[in-house]
Amino acid sequence: MAERRMFTKKVTDDDNFMSLSSSAQALYLHLSMSADDDGFCNQISTSMFKAHASVQDLQALLEKRYIYQFESGVIVIKHWRMANALRKDRYTPTAFQEELSKLDLKDNGSYTWLPNGCQVVAERLPQDRLDKNSIDKVNNKYSSSFNEFWDNYPRKQDKGQAYKCYQARLNDGYTEEQLLTACINYAAECEHDKREKKYIKVGATFLSVNEPFVDYLDKEKPDEQPKRRTDGDISAERESEIREIIRRIESGEADHDDDGLWDGLP
């Protein structure tokens, strides 16, 4: 197994990463340094002890999807392949082949869950430090389509509630593709406007029953331009008005000299 580990600025200089506590950032670095050549690590307790990290720090890395954790307790660095690639003669395959089988590799080198994969999230314990406590593991059963939605959503907060709203909108008849499209368009708008995090809707609000996401769905047809009136249209309207005036005079409804009867006509 290689002794050197690399990091990419695409991860460590990202605003989301910088918003983590210093101990959570340190935990990410120590987990990476302890990982094998495929990015898997089972030295969580040791890494947390070295980083002086709390269970909340581990939770933050999981919620922001910088790491994935399996039922076995093993974690994998999500963006491992973006920075670490070894020659075959120096590469040692991971011993955690069962866990590896639950992952797919994106074109950009980041891991993602296969549809039958599952993620384990650490719950907050009464004591803060893992060197004195074990971690409770709870299965979070999110669909692969929602995980893709969440990967693209610009504000990672309250994932569980967002998932409930996501499922509710699917039950309302919206498709997974529509919700993903709305998510990507909203994220692009936030990035373009350089919108501060506090002004970005949380996922549950974006997918709420009020359906603000609908504004970010692609339009099937471009808005039609107002039809321009032609001289022929104007002449036809004027002729119709004159006929109506003549009818009213002949029927006795109006007199030829009534004020305003001919207003607007030549």
General description of the model:
The chain is mainly α and 266 residues long. The chain folds into 3 domains: 1-141, no CATH class; 144-224, no CATH class; 225-255. It has helices at residues 9-12, 15-18, 22-34, 44-51, 55-63, 97-100, 144-152, 159-171, 176-193, 203-206, 231-251; strands at residues 40-41, 67-69, 75-77, 103-105, 111-113, 119-122, 137-140. A 3-stranded antiparallel β-sheet has the order 1-3-2, with helices on one face. The protein has a two-stranded antiparallel ribbon with strand order 4-5. α3 (22-34) packs across α5 (55-63) and α7 packs parallel to α9. It is elongated and about 105 Å long. The chain starts with 8 loop residues before the first helix and ends in a 15-residue tail after the last helix.
State the main characteristics.
266 residues; three-stranded antiparallel β-sheet; mainly alpha; two-stranded antiparallel sheet
Count of discrete structural domains: 3
Arrangement of strands in the largest sheet? 1-3-2
Molecular shape: elongated
Q: How helix-rich are the residues, as a percent range?
A: 40-55%
Separation, N- and C-terminal Cα atoms: 95 Å
Outline the secondary-structure elements.
Elements: H1 9-12, H2 15-18, H3 22-34, E1 40-41, H4 44-51, H5 55-63, E2 67-69, E3 75-77, H6 97-100, E4 103-105, E5 111-113, E6 119-122, E7 137-140, H7 144-152, H8 159-171, H9 176-193, H10 203-206, H11 231-251
Antiparallel strand pairs: 1-3, 2-3, 4-5, 6-7
Helix pairs in contact: 3-4, 3-5, 7-9
